[in-house]
Amino acid sequence: MDLNKMMKNTLKIVLLTSMLPFAASASQELTPWYVGAGLGVNNYEHVATQNGSDDPFAWDIFAGYMFNDYFGAEIGFRDLGNADWTAAGISNDADVKGTTLGLVGLWPLANRWSLSAEAGAMYYTLENSQRFGSTSSTYSTDDFAPYFGAGVGYNFTDNLKLQAKYRRYENLNDDYNIVEADSNYWGLELSYRFGNTVAAAPVAAAVVAAAPVDSDNDGVYDDKDQCPATPATHKVDSVGCTIYENVKSKEDVGSIQFANDSAVVKNVYYKDIERLANYMNKNPEFTVEIAGHASNVGKPDYNMELSHKRANAVADILVNKYGISQSRVTAKGYGVTQPLVAGDSKEAHAANRRIEAIVTTTTKQPVLK
Description:
Elements: H1 3-23, E1 33-45, E2 53-55, E3 57-66, E4 71-87, E5 90-108, E6 113-132, E7 135-155, E8 160-173, E9 180-193, H2 200-209, E10 244-257, H3 270-282, E11 287-292, H4 300-321, E12 329-333, H5 346-352, E13 354-366
Parallel strand pairs: 11-12
Antiparallel strand pairs: 1-3, 1-9, 2-4, 3-4, 4-5, 5-6, 6-7, 7-8, 8-9, 10-13, 11-13
């Protein structure tokens, strides 16, 4: 092995890789371009026998362009090292180097790992130095040889990648049928992709996206607001629409008067009860309370019972004659506790002998802030 030659090759790789970050410093975005270098060992088949040996060290430099995340092209220069052997008393020292052009396929894996495959051609120069006794001569051949390879890579950063590579070169032959060789290469390659992944335009877009608009000031941004014009005083749900609640209220829809000490409904009031039934039928969600009252004449217990009878009498007509559901009608007596007209006059007593129909209604109202 030629130690001097090994040191020269190693120095080339170190100098090249140390310059890669400086070459990319002016870039502001991750670009499709990359450069790199590699160092490895190479074995020539068919030429080095027990009478010879390989100088196994090989190196290469290259530049590439990725068409997308999975496919690219690569150009480079490769030195496959030397093979030394003796045949028929002639000492041979052959070296192969040249320019390569090929296609590269890349398969990203998890955790920054990737697989690669490549294929292309090498325009090579094969130079062989021969010595026979004290006589020496050198000849060279230029030709094309196909190659293919595979690799496993790891990205230390988005820019810097290390790959373990294998390549197979076929038909590395000279014009004199002295060298007819194939070659196997194993090595490591370090590559640098220019630029970085932080671009100015995406940052600006992120700033804009961080400030969404709420046109009606209801607390729901426009991109999710399904009711874009809700009043400012209304509470809204998660999609910006007004929240409503059901509100119950009571409405006095009329009264019926009775004779003294009587719970009999006079025929003249049947029209009023029918109007109440029609109102209930038009509003099936409403309920009604028939409230019975009495004048302040006689004992309070008796008047309480009498007021309850008056309420039941009207409720029975509403249910049995006009078909209003029993579940929607209640009857309750209040005796003399809620007089309509105060006093002990004949007019006051007549006004207080009555029932009142109180309808409970349900309305939909917006919930306010």
